[in-house]
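Key result, reporting period 2: structure in, sequence out.
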């Protein structure tokens, strides 16, 4: 049965429209499952649903699940928002009750329904969630508010956690990177004295993502550096891996080690390609390293803030349309960008890298080194469109991204090619 037929059968009046504007509250859903029941939670698009708070409110051990897990998704990805029809426990945001009309997505188009008619029929229990106007306020003041609060909280971190020391291999790599001329012999020596770095470099060198087709002929670290990867890329890959290895990051969810490491390498490579295409007069190696380390703050969260990190992962997965930085700020009162910048500052990294890490979520960074965070931002934005990275609260309008249509299409082509190579490479 089509959902609009379902509405008619239950005598619920509605107006069918092809599209809606931002002033019409659009109803969305989340699903939680317990050993005894399944709950459908209805809320507005810009509201934040926190599973931990929901468990506390209901005193039921609900776990977040996807609608696919309970076979409610219809062909074409359509999901009818009718908990009563499926025997589910229904909850609704208290904000929805304040709206005269609500919009519900149909198989095609939308249905505008009087809120009182829908709630009366649906028999939903009221639920207080993080309100939409509070989210909008944070969005409007994102850069100023989050930055000030984050820096104040992070200033107190030394009294809470022990600052992680640099690994020996990372110290040697940073010292070598400060030299004006490359030294392949020293770089080879650093890698060969670290079994993990050796194994990873050989894996990367034999990967079609980084090297030519006949990469099976690479047998030594020196060959990997000189014949396939190149000195600068090996330096940045090893440095990124060495720094993150000192932080024991968990492997689960969208913030897990493997996913974050893959996104980091993609971000560094795409940011460098963007800079080359736009002929930016910046240090390409520092830019690539900035992309690789832009989310290192998550590794600090994963090590020092368990089990809060597990809650953060669940909250981010429960709110795919909300900027993860706002969810982080709601929980920790700081964000992973500022935490990463704090860490790299303590490790005496170049100011350009620190700036890029701190501001790579901002589309208009007010810094002295705008090109670094802005180029990393562009890389992350285009990767996000392919499912790699966070949600970005910007339009797809190339003008608002600060690039023209030709540049937009070119970066899209480069990112698509890079993603395709990654998906075909099991080592990534």
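The corresponding designed sequence is given below.
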């Amino acid at each position: 049965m089509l959902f609009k037929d379902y509405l008619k059968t239950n005598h619920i009046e509605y107006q069918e429209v092809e599209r809606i504007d931002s002033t019409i509250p659009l109803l969305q859903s989340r699903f939680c499952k317990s050993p005894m029941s399944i709950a459908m939670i209805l809320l507005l698009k810009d509201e934040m649903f926190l599973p931990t708070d929901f468990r506390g409110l209901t005193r039921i051990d609900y776990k977040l699940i996807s609608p696919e897990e309970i076979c409610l998704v219809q062909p074409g990805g359509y999901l009818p928002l009718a908990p009563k029809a499926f025997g589910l426990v229904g909850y609704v945001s208290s904000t929805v009750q304040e709206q005269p009309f609500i919009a519900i997505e149909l198989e095609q188009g939308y249905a505008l329904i009087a809120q009182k008619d829908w709630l009366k029929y649906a028999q939903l229990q009221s639920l207080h969630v993080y309100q939409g106007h509070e989210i909008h306020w944070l969005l409007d003041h994102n850069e100023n508010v989050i930055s000030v609060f984050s820096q104040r909280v992070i200033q107190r971190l030394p009294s809470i956690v022990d600052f992680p020391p640099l690994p020996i291999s990372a110290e040697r790599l940073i010292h070598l990177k400060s030299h004006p001329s490359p030294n392949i012999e020293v770089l080879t020596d650093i890698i060969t004295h670290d079994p993990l770095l050796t194994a990873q470099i050989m894996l990367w060198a034999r990967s079609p993502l980084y090297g030519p087709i006949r990469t099976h002929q690479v047998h030594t670290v020196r060959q990997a550096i000189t014949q396939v990867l190149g000195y600068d890329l090996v330096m940045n890959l090893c440095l990124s891996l060495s720094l993150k290895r000192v932080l024991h990051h968990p492997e689960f969810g969208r913030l897990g080690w493997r996913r974050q490491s893959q996104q980091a390498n993609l971000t560094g490579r795409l940011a460098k390609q963007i800079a080359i295409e736009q002929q930016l007069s910046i240090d390409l190696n520092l830019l690539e390293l900035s992309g690789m380390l832009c989310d290192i703050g998550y590794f600090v969260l994963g090590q020092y803030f368990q089990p809060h990190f597990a809650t953060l992962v669940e909250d981010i997965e429960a709110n795919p349309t909300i900027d993860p930085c706002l969810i982080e700020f709601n929980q920790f009162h700081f964000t992973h960008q500022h935490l990463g910048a704090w860490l790299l500052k303590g490790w005496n990294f170049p100011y350009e890298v620190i700036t890029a890490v701190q501001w790579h979520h901002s589309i208009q960074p007010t810094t002295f080194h705008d090109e670094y965070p802005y180029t990393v931002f562009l890389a992350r934005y285009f990767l996000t469109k392919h499912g790699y990275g966070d949600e970005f609260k910007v339009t797809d309008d190339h003008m608002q991204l600060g690039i023209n249509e030709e540049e937009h299409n070119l970066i899209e082509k480069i990112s698509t090619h890079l993603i395709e190579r990654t998906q075909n490479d099991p080592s990534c």
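The chain has 19 helices and eight strands. The chain has three domains: 3-131, 141-164+250-428, 166-246. This case is discussed further under Risks and Mitigation.
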